[in-house]
Amino acid sequence: MAGISVEFSRVGKRFGARPVLAAVSGTLRPGEVLVVAGPNGAGKSTLLNILAGVLRPSRGAVSYRRGDVDVPRRDWFENLGMASPDMAVYDELSALENLRFFGRLRGHAVADATLGGLLETLGLPAREHHRPVGTYSSGMKQRVKLAQAALHAPAVLLLDEPSSNLDAAGHEAVAALVARFRPHAAVAVATNDPREIAWGDARLDLAL
Amino acid sequence: MRASTLLSESLAVLGKELISELRSRVALNAIGLFGVTTLIVVAYQIGPYQIQEQDRPHLLSALLWIILFFAATSGLSRVFVKEEDAHTAKALRLAARPLAVFAGKYLFNLILLIALFTLIVPLYCALMGYAVRGVAGLVLVLAAGAVALAATATIVAAIIARASGSTTLFAILSVPLVLPLLVMLIQGTRAAAASAELAAVVPALQGVVSLGGAVLTVSVYLFPVVWHD
Predict the structure, then answer these.
(1) What's the number of domains chain A is made of?
(2) What is the DSSP code string of B124-148?
(3) pLDDT tens digits, B152-173
(4) Mutant choice from A105, A131, A157 vs B, greatest count of B C-beta within 10 A
(5) What domain range is A16 assigned to?
(6) A7-11, A14-18, B88-92: which range is least confident on average?
């Protein structure tokens, strides 16, 4: 099945009278990593939320296309994986239970061994998989969030500051995750970290 | 085409709610503690003998629903607020269809209410000397009340989840929906206490089921808008 591209045209956002994103256009293509860079407050997270469809733009339009065919908005979420600082997984559940839950919601009955493997590739050792996420460090929680975004092999992967709270090994694990998705998925990374900017095939700079 | 069904997603949400609640026990403790405390205070201060015989059917049925409603309010309003407070709502929005979220949360609230009713009603009857002639009728009224109250609480909880001062807002928004419901439930309970005939509770049941059905139907259309905007 062909990959999905995300086209956004003159997308802007205001919160009340305050503009947070000027008219921005671009395309997120399968097989490509788009880096969204810019200073704090430039609207990187806002743009990713608009691309995900969880925030309505004040102006402009976003469309998901599979080849020449528009993907209906109701089908966006099932093709999408996202991790961002304003997201969390459930503190009362363990890492494995969280992934089982999100897998069930997405209709992916994945074996525990596979889920455990995904967590381990993101640097969360097996001995931690059954502990409640509420007892984790922020870096460990970030790894579970990333696993939640990737577990259904989405066609569009949106990562907002994916290495935040992670150590050097964690950063390498995220780089490996992005590399794994790059051949078939459309990946966007919002970041100011020069190491993450280097992952990009294309770059969109946002200004204040 | 989604690989999951509405039913499987709803059950996944319900399962997650139950596991989270059994581990944190926040809502269970809130409604249990509120319900039992209020019941003991009412029983201690009023008791079975401080109400005139002719006033007993009216007052005892009204007191029962006051205790049940306020105990329920302390727990049921949390189902969506806790998702927003813990920042888990976004991941849930992206993974589940809105109706599955509503159905899972609704079923969870329904289970909480059934647990509350199972705990409080027998205790209330024992402590207040509330003799019920139509036990089957009372069970039907309680069941219909649980279905309708859970529907009302769930949709109002969704509406207020992103607002500040959400607990106060929950009480304010609930009033117009809950007031007629409580009136009918009190009438049904009084009828069940007075008569062993099931027919005695039918008029109240019809009202409760109609209102509950209307709230559920509106919720099906309203919730996706509330959830995504």
Answers:
(1) 1
(2) HHHHHT---S-HHHHHHHHHHHHHH
(3) 999 999 988 877 666 677 777 7
(4) A105
(5) 4-205
(6) A14-18
